[in-house]
């Protein structure tokens, strides 16, 4: 296995880093853009854009099929991206299924692992703070198998109630689905401890790492889960890229989810011999250029050093929270002691969408709505929130511009 990259000793010059992102130079509605929607999708550095462009200009060919030079170059570059991503997550490349993102990754577990295994009487334990991508596939499995969904509740501060979670791990629970980091609250869940408790009880764990991998060092081996899903577009990579890491024993035992080219060794009308994992789960032509871009994104993040990224975002989060606390009538959802740079909030008397629209007029991009997490918003009894989500490329000056725009918008709506 490749060794994970060491964190560079010196923290990057963040002003220079920002200049790597061409889109951040944009004006929106005549104002310099303040992009606070990175939990939705991240912006891309020039090196990623160039890697995608370079692939189409110089190497474009299909993978794992042609023996000609372009075909070999494309295959090698694609497999190199898999190796880079595996090293980034500290897993083996042969355990990493490349796919279109977390949604596909979790559905792969649902259809290939859970559907054949679960039956009436079994329970799937899902945390209250999950994104719909880590709820709906389990509901579909439950409908088809007769299994039941049980909810692991949260506390008012947005942390998981761990005592309740462990009590809920009864013998009928076969699978646990939990986010590493909440896309609404920013809560960082203690997934290592949670997966250890699940393992002790023979429960298979699925961790949604969508909001973790872009913002902190993720060592999947040390988490000790059974499955870990990531999505590339939130970690500086292209859309339509992502991966599912799974324990080898699962990958070997699981039947394929989708059939077609690439995932076979031999096909006849008497039967088909499937390829070895991870290729067994990668039918059809993949998003080759996207994965070349994701490889470049991993290179980029490793050059920054994930420990530096996390420290930078923690500092930005503290500033953002301080500014939000000054706004009259503002309520923040989620006060976990360990929190990523995602802040959901509401301002008394102002609808989330109205505020987001007024902020957009000031060049500020935040998300408003339910953030694909209806059950979580139901817990707080609200129909929508605003969400400001940061990345290392944001600046303290942007936080001040955002705060001023928010004060102005609040006054207009008051
Ligand atoms: N899980 C979480 C926590 C997310 O934030 C998201 C995206 O917003 C997803 C899953 C779904 O990711 P994708 O749409 O890239 O598959």
Structural overview:
The chain has 2 domains: 137 residues, Aspartate Aminotransferase, domain 1 (Alpha-Beta Complex); 253 residues, Type I PLP-dependent aspartate aminotransferase-like (Major domain) (Aspartate Aminotransferase, domain 2, 3-Layer(aba) Sandwich), CATH 3.40.640. The mean pLDDT is 96. The chain contains 14 helices and 17 strands. It is globular. The strands form 5 sheets. A 7-stranded mixed sheet has the order 4-10-9-8-7-5-6, sandwiched between helices. Helices cover 40% and strands 17% of the residues. Helix 2 runs antiparallel to helix 10, helix 3 packs across helix 10 and helix 11 packs parallel to helix 14. The protein has 414 residues and is an alpha/beta fold. The site of pyridoxal-5'-phosphate (PLP) has 14 residues, from helix 4.
Pick out its properties.
414 residues; globular; binds pyridoxal-5'-phosphate; 4-stranded antiparallel β-sheet; single chain; alpha/beta; 17% strand; Aspartate Aminotransferase, domain 1; Aspartate Aminotransferase, domain 2
């Amino acid at each position: 296995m490749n060794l994970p990259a060491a964190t560079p000793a010196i923290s990057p010059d963040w002003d220079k880093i920002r200049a790597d992102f061409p889109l951040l130079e944009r004006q929106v509605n005549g104002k310099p853009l303040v992009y606070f929607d990175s939990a939705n999708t991240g912006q891309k550095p020039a090196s990623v854009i160039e890697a995608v462009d370079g692939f189409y200009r110089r190497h474009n060919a299909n993978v794992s099929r042609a023996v000609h030079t372009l075909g070999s170059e494309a295959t090698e570059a694609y497999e190199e991206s898999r190796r880079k991503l595996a090293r980034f997550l500290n897993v083996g490349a042969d355990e990493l299924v490349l796919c279109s993102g977390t949604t596909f990754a979790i559905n792969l577990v649902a259809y290939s692992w859970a559907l054949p295994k679960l039956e009436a009487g079994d329970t799937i334990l899902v945390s209250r703070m999950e994104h719909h991508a880590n709820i709906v596939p389990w509901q579909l499995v439950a409908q088809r198998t007769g299994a039941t969904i049980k909810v692991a509740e949260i506390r008012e501060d947005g942390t998981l109630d761990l005592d309740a979670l462990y009590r809920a791990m009864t013998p009928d629970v076969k699978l646990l689905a939990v986010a590493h980091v909440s896309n609404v609250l920013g809560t960082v869940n203690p997934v290592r401890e949670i997966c250890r408790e699940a393992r002790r009880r023979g429960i298979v764990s699925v961790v949604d790492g969508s909001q973790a991998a872009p913002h902190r060092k993720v060592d999947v081996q040390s988490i000790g889960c059974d499955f870990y899903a990531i999505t590339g577009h939130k970690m500086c990579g292209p859309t339509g890229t992502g991966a599912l890491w799974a324990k080898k024993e699962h990958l070997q035992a699981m039947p394929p989810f989708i059939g077609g080219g690439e995932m076979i060794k031999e096909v006849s009308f008497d039967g088909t011999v499937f390829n070895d994992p991870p290729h067994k789960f990668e039918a059809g032509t993949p998003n080759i250029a996207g994965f070349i871009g994701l490889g470049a994104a991993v290179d980029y993040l490793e050059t920054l050093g994930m420990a530096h990224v996390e420290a930078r975002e923690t500092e930005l989060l503290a500033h953002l929270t301080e500014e939000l606390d000054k706004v009259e009538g503002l309520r923040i959802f989620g006060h976990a002691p360990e929190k990523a740079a995602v802040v959901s909030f509401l301002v008394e008397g102002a609808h989330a969408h109205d505020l987001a629209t007024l902020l957009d007029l000031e060049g500020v991009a935040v998300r408003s709505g339910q953030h694909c997490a209806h059950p979580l918003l139901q817990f707080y009894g609200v129909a929508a929130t605003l969400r400001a989500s940061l990345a290392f490329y944001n600046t303290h000056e942007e936080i001040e511009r955002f705060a001023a725009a928010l004060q102005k918008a609040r006054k207009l709506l008051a």
